[in-house]
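Researcher: Here's the sequence for the chain we discussed earlier.
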Amino acid sequence: MAFSIETRKKDIEALKNETVDVLIIGGGITGAGAALQASASGLKTCLVEMQDFSEGTSSRSTKLVHGGLRYLKNFDVEVVADTVQERAVVQGIAPHIPKPDPMILPIYDEANTTFSMFSLKVAMDLYDRLADVTGTKYANYTLTKEEVLKRQPQLKSEGLLGAGVYLDYRNNDARLVIENIKQAAEDGGRMLSRTKVVGITHDEEGRVSGAKVQDLLTGEMFTIKARTVLNTTGPWSDTIRQMDDKTETTPQMRPTKGVHLVVDKKRLSVEQPTYFDTGKQDGRMVFVIPREEKTYFGTTDTDYKGDLKNPKVEQEDVDYLLDIVNNRYPSVNITINDIEASWAGLRPLIATNSGSDYNGLSNQTISDESIDTVLSTVEQYQQGKVERYEVADVLKNIEKSNSETGTDPSSLSRGSSLEIDNDGLITVAGGKITDYRKMALGAIKMVIKILERDFNASYKLIDSASYSVSGGDMDPKKVDEETEKLAQMGVEKGLSPSEATYLAHLYGTNTPKVYALLDEVEKIDGLTLADSISLHYAMREEMTLSPSDFMVRRTNHMLFMRDTLDEIIDPVISEMAKYYKWSDKDKNHYRRELEEAIAESDLKTLKGDVN
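Model: Thanks. This is the structure I predict for it:
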């Protein structure tokens, strides 16, 4: 089934004359997950997003699917258990997207570190049990100082005690969103990007009955009628709730900004994802991650009060991250001029959840005395001096300190909330990418309950833990083998091995649909054959409406292929202009939009490289 601009036009016309069961506002990962579950369960579903799908927040993460190892510092066992189990579910329903990529965590002899070598090993062993990888090739292990430096020779040796290695997953956040969106569309949902909500509508009894929206491509205003309305707009959650004039709401969001910077692998070479304390004793940790032929690092975590639509990388963000990375890798001497790309994103944190983890459990700081007692007891247990029940008793009686004030954005919860206002507007907010399916599940359960209670409509919710996203119809235990088979199909059709492998990893079991375009799409002058068919697939099957959509969110050209980005700008714009029949004015508009996005990613203003 096509998912294109033509699909969009037909959906808009249909929506003017029908009432949907659920209108979802917000096309990030939570909205996308909710749309998939609702559509697959038979609900008449519509999703509207004022930008491109995932453009606001969900394409601007650290691009990992975390297991939450750091929570074990405070022995939040339930949190980690929930997180690693849900991570496994996401990997099962989207096996072509999250990929296992073991993380190395160096330990330094510094004050106020998150872990010592001993506490890290205890945490990793527990983590492996919770993730059910004990005894597998992904089981954790420790490295001596010498082994760490052999693996990462650029890493700072002074004070280095060793490291732990444990399982984590890399992620393509924007691809995870679009694959959920595509599956929702295939199951009958009407998925509209560039459609902005400008007002919440109500019935005669004052209950939410839909929304007035504007098609940002044409300027047309129309009303979408809905039995239920679900707000999944992340940092914009308060904005949508305050748009609802039938109810009074108290703002609950406290967005924080996270920044990531990209350099060439030749400037900073790491063998595998690396995670360490900042060395500033500020309670934060930083990632340094290899991706393609690049290395990116982040993140910052600072309160944000600016334009929600366009958070920017600022000088202080760059200074902070460069200071940390140059300290941990003292020989690299990275400067702002080495930065090839960057991104800034917002975390939709819930202010009132400070001191709680993402699902409401306690996350207060554990007292030093309790930590010492736990570690001592665990050590005695490993030596056979105490029984297991004694360890359990110690864990049950951990004392929490009340020193957390909630003023530090790094201490804020990534917790989620699900609320319904007096007039029926449902809002799900907060959370992390790893939790998206569960957040969506809770929201759609509430929607179905309301439909049954108020509209006498009965629906059976699908088992979203086993329902694959688009492109994910493969055995999650045989991803490498199946991806290799898909790549070989491309080679047999005339693609180079590298091109075919690239496409197979990007599209999963949708790759044959991409290959099918080889029969009707000629190689575009200035693009590779792989990029030629990828661009056409993006326009025909992935609602790619602008060059930025393609280069930033359907592929990673802007972030991790900066070397070849400039040379493909003209071919991509020209081909899209021909396909969409853009006027010269349209063409110039999209060119400026792309150039502005590239300049922002390149940090041209901060570098003083401005025309």
